[in-house]
Amino acid sequence: MNNEHTTRALKQALADRFGEEVSIPPGLEGLEQLLAIANQSTHRAWAERAVDADLIRLLAACALSAPTKSYLQQADIVDLRDSTVRSAVESLVPSMPWMKTAPALLVFCGNGRRFRRIFERRDQAFTNEHLDGFFNPTVDATLVLMNFIRAASAIGMVCCPISVLRDRAEALATILEMPDHVFPVAGLCVGWPLQERSISPRLPLAATLHQNRFDEDHTDALIDRFDSRYKAVQSSRRPAGSPIAQTWSDERAKQYASSQRADWGRFVRRQKFDLS
Ligand SMILES: Cc1cc2nc3c(=O)[nH]c(=O)nc-3n(C[C@H](O)[C@H](O)[C@H](O)COP(=O)(O)O)c2cc1C
Q1: Residues contacting 119, CB < 8 A, separation 6+
Q2: Residue 163 near ligand 1, beta carbon < 6 Å
Q3: pLDDT in tens, 197-239
């Protein structure tokens, strides 16, 4: 794609995403990469093409090149290759069949263990036993997860994060033999795309990009605006005769109508994190 085409495609992708024009300053290099980022989509259907351990290793190496808080390197990836382990994990989430059919399934973990081990090996007191000790590995693991998705997408692969696995955190930790101070952040299905996916809309930038101060003066109106656009986009994508599309707010309120993962704090404490 030449630069003019890429610029046009990027503008279109961002217009589809945000429902507004995002201007692109002239003379920028690397717009193809921005286009790939702007076009990012979660996939839940996979082409019949295996993903072998060496390819995961390559993508994991790229993913683990992400920045890491205080150079602490508190993220790990578990590649589920053994069929017994994999089916045990799959059986924890029967509601998401795309996990079972995915060519590869990974679990991204926060790891506060290695950091503590440095102190143990020196007989030195660990002086950072508080919430930050849980938060930092969470952020590291999330960056590695996103970097993995970007690396996979760079070679035409697609992914689906699976946080629903955390509904069964204790069982997952047992299957994967996670020691104290290690916890799952999300699963990740990885494969090759079966079909293209349309861009899923995001809130207008006025709601999520702030200048100088945190501004929520117009939040309700911006959500209302997004709800209308979301419903129109969903309606236009549904086959004739489908149930009427709901707004984004209605869907989210329905999805979170009952309490979810209320035992997560208990699990994290069981892994010996002090959250005070
Ligand atoms: C941390 C995280 C956890 C997610 N967990 C799930 C999940 O358990 N199951 C699922 O099908 N999708 C999951 N997703 C995918 C989101 O549903 C998806 O990103 C969202 O609907 C927006 O769609 P898009 O990624 O195609 O733009 C997760 C995404 C993230 C970032």
Answers
A1: 125, 126
A2: yes
A3: 999 999 999 999 999 999 999 999 999 999 999 999 999 999 8
- Report CA(128)–ligand 1 centroid distance (Å): 32
DSSP 135-194: HHHHHHHHHHHHHHHHHHHHTT-EEEEEGGGGGGHHHHHHHTT--TTEEEEEEEEEE-BS
Report helix, strand or coil for 111: strand
Write the DSSP symbol of residue 71: G
> What is the fold, at CATH topology level, of the domain defined by 53-194+260-270?
NADH Oxidase (3.40.109)
Burial (0-12, 13-18, 19+ Cβ within 10 Å), 45: middle
Q: Show me where the domains of the chain are located.
A: 1-39, 53-194+260-270
For residue 233, what pLDDT is reported?
96
Distance, CA 1 to ligand 1 centroid (Å)? 29
**What are the backbone angles phi and psi of residue 138, rounded to the nearest 5°?**
-65, -45
Any ligand 1 atom below 6 A from CB of 99: no
Cα angle vertex 225, ends 19, 246, to 5°? 95
Closest CA to 43 of 118, 93, 103: 103
Task: Tell me if residue 76 falls in helix, strand or coil.
Answer: strand
State how far the Cα of 262 lies from the Cα of 207, in Å rounded to an integer: 28
Q: What would the two tokens of residue 156 be?
A: 């035409």
Residue 162, ligand 1, Cβ within 6 A: yes
CB of residue 41 inside a 6 A radius of ligand 1: yes
